[in-house]
Amino acid sequence: MKFKAVKGTSDVLPAESSGWQYVESVIRRQAEKFGFREIRTPIFEETALFVKGTGDTTDIVQKEMYTFTDKGNRSITLKPEGTPPVIRAMLEHNLLKENPLAKVYYIAPMFRYERPQAGRMRQHTQFGAEIVGSPSPQADVEVISLLFHTLQELGLSGLKLRLNTLGCPKCRPQYREKLVGYLKPKLPNLCEYCNDRFLRNPLRVLDCKVDQDKFDDAPEMGQFLCTECRDHFQAVQDNLSVISIPFVLDKKLVRGLDYYTRTAFEVASRHLGAQDALGGGGRYDGLVEELGGDPTPGVGFGSGIERYLLAMKNQGVKFPEEKRTDYFIATLGNEAKIKGMEIGTQLRLKGYICEQELLDRSLKAQMREANRLNTRFVILIGEDEIKKGVVTIKDMDGHSQRVVPLNELVEKILGAAKQ
User: Is 399 left (phi over 0), alpha (psi -120 to 50) or beta?
Assistant: First the structure.
């Protein structure tokens, strides 16, 4: 029987892993610049955390979660999104008691049972960030800026920031009433999910991917905002303008999660086709309290690293070249293998990238392997070299070679590196 990766998952092969490592290194550098610290939560949580935190009207909870009953008869769910676990961890470990403001980021796998497509898999990797404790519109702008500038740092161009406000519990009921009146006559012509969302959370109808073009004349939340929400949203726009992040207002942007209040945003790329979102998020001022904490404001985002890589590929972004091998140790004979192992260990401990022949190939085949690895130098050790107490160092760029005493090899290499 021949096994394959499960549908909706993929392997990151050695030839591809350097691209992932590069993206992750850029993410970590950018997060550090903004003062975010990494948090790592378990890969699975109690199912109730997501039902309560993500919202039972969301596609995630209704259709996409990987949920199972464990041997303790507990309902467990593989992590479909990052924010509820982060809030759970903060509350469990009293992080908000130690410091009233928490700024964290994560790079973690997420699991959603949805139709696999380019850049959107059933297991995917998210970069997310959260600021918990601040009601300030500057906090909204800071998380937007972290996402936007990280994407720019990766070389992506043609980015579009979509922005909307969802109001708050004070002003949203008036908008909800108006939206219900607008949607009710349309229900017979809308999909089954829209009809279900209409009963549970009418705002989520606007997020439908099937019937979205039917809502162009929908009432806008902006017409119903209370003074606090209007001022907050204007401040977000003003601050984005000050730091030169362009944006477009999108009245149909409600995001896919029930916990959002006020600011909602999405960053898209023109290099991804119709499903163009790289990531997005918003403010969730009621979530901490919903999960058992004191009333605490928060704002954050989640984004897909697979989608970063797809957009970069489509745009033709060049990744940095992999580090080349400094030394390849080509050996012939048992004594040479032992001496090669000793030399290789010494060079690695000094910080050099060093490969050694492990397949007992001919010298010609070993040189081909050194070429394939783009090796800078080859150290040749054979029976004659062992008898004479020397090695031959071949410069693969300069096509020259020199003989060096075995007992002086590492010192001469280190000396040459300093010149």
Answer: left
Place of tokens 């942007």: 253
Helix spans in 121-171 (H): 137-153
- The answer to whether residue 151 is domain-embedded is yes
**For residue 194, is it within any domain?**
no
Q: Would you state the pLDDT for residue 403?
A: 92
Q: Which domain holds residue 127?
A: 14-171+225-315
> Are 230 and 170 within 8 A, CB to CB?
no
Distance CA 175, CA 218 (A): 11
**pLDDT for 212:** 65
Euclidean distance between CA atoms 252 and 280, whole angstroms: 14
Question: What radius of gyration, in Å, describes the C-alpha atoms of the chain?
Answer: 28
Q: Which two tokens stand for residue 178?
A: 């108006």
Rounded to 10 deg, the angle between the 14-33 and 305-315 helix axes is: 110
Tokens representing 271 are 């290099």
So what's the pLDDT on residue 211?
A: 61
Please count the other Cβ atoms lying within 10 Å of the Cβ belonging to residue 216: 8
Distance CA 268, CA 31 (A): 20
Answer yes or no: do 238 and 370 share one domain: no
Q: What is the CATH number of the domain that holds 309?
A: 3.30.930.10
pLDDT tens-digit readout, 231-259: 999 999 999 999 999 999 998 887 656 67
329/340 Cα distance (integer angstroms):
6
Q: How far is CA 215 from CA 77, 171, 205, 262, in A?
A: 34, 21, 9, 21
Determine, yes or no, domain membership for 191. no
CB under 8 Å to 415, separation ≥6 — which residues?
none
* 332 and 308 both lie in a single domain: no
Provide the domain count of the chain.
2
| 62 CB neighbour count, 10 Å cutoff | 14
367 lies in the same domain as 232: no
Write the CA distances from 147 to 41, 126, 280, 309, 417, integer angstroms: 21, 12, 8, 15, 39
Output the pTM of the full model: 0.90
Is there a single domain that holds both residue 297 and residue 369? Answer: no
Regions of the chain where pLDDT drops below 70: 57, 209-213, 255-258, 415-419
What is the pLDDT, as a whole number, of residue 210?
67
